[in-house]
Amino acid sequence: MNALIEASRLTRAPTATDLGFALGPRINAGGRVGKSDLGVRLLTTEDADEARGIAEELNRLKRGNAPAIEAEVQQSAEAIEAEGAVAVVAARGWHPGVIGIVAGRLKERLGRPAIVIAIGEDGIGKGSGRSIAGVDLGAAILAAKEAGLLIAGGGHAMAAGVTIAEDQIPALVAFLDEKLAETVERAAGERALLLDAVLAPGGVNPALVNAMEAGGPYGMGWPAPRVAAGPVRIIKCDVVGNGHVRAIVAGEDGRSIKCVAFRSADTPLGLALLGAARDRRLWIAGRAKIDDWGARPAAEIHIEDAALGVTSDSNDLASLRCDHNENIVNKSHMDWRGRTLVNDSVDNYELTTESQPVSVENRGWSRRRRETHSMSGFSTISLLKRQA
After folding, report:
1. For residue 43, what are the domain limits?
2. Is the separation of the CB atoms in 100 and 128 below 8 Å?
3. Which intervals hold domain DHHA1 (predicted)?
């Protein structure tokens, strides 16, 4: 692992995020291009020189062939018209090592479960599926297997795998559509982006990020904290890397922060950020992270969503507020992904500038949520209460 950490250019002790997004993907990179033994050899060798060599090869694969293969399969998958409750796409020639990643991205883009199937020369397809909250894809796949549609299949609520004959794919699509159509429609209509804190840009700082990281590790059932910051104006916005939208935003408190929306350049969110007028005030929502590539660590936001601000007053949370009767204080504004921005319990949560928000510093952490829903029937962004 030390060799892999060195190859990944990490200069600090790895965090849970590093394990998930830096080290883990490098271990898996070999399998995506037919060299799955590299990860095993790296973790079992006792020769330091061999470990460094393998780690560098995995690093090259992560940065070279694997992303190109992912992009090729993703582009092909998105070009296929996938009707039905579950987007099922299949083709010959796709590398089976990247179908899980592509399924996840397709699910995010479409807002419904997705299954990507790579069909081999023998006519047998290997598929990987990803679901949305509220839709148990694994149970549906097990039911399809019991119905005789699959050679093999299984999974859990949010992910599943299948082995299927090519000529059975249309039957699988019809089966999933019949079984999940109502559930998917209901889940898509109840999408909610849950917030831990509402902040002014100055409140997004390394101390806040470190406090939040101390509550980890995060994952299913205990998601990483999400914050909303605003109102902000976009000072600079461009596209970098593999379709990432990078921005610098400034708030009414005089502070600016860096933001990035990954793989969003051609999405409604990315296009809205790139096209936003410089005097237009926005709220942005996402994960606060540490950017340690510069001379000193700085906080940044990994944007997951954004919405139009209501006024220039930094204390005006009308677009992020419900009153105590859970009626909207002012008419909420739709964001670019079809949700409204609303939160609750204004008495307990205040706009924060330099200090850490009360939800982190004073209230501790628990796993208790409270969701509100707007009067218009749209799903809401709701405040996540993590009380001791």
Report:
1. 2-63
2. yes
3. 86-181
The residue among 8, 95, 5, 1 whose CA lies nearest residue 39 is: 1
Q: Are strands 256-261 and 298-308 parallel, antiparallel or unpaired?
A: parallel
DSSP per position, 116-164: EEEE-TTSEEEEEEE--TT--HHHHHHHHHHTT--SEEEEETTEEEEEE
Round to whole Å and give the CA distance between 131 and 331.
Answer: 31
User: pLDDT tens digits, residue range 194-214?
Assistant: 777 778 888 888 888 888 887
User: CA-CA distance, 244 to 301, in Å (whole number)?
Assistant: 13
d(CA 19, CA 27): 10
Domain-located, residue 319: yes
295: exposed, middle or buried (Cβ count in 10 Å: 0-12, 13-18, 19+): exposed
DSSP H or E segment with residue 172: helix 169-189
For residue 275 the two structure tokens come to 């096209």
Is 0.70 topped by the overall pTM? no
* Domains held by the chain: number: 3
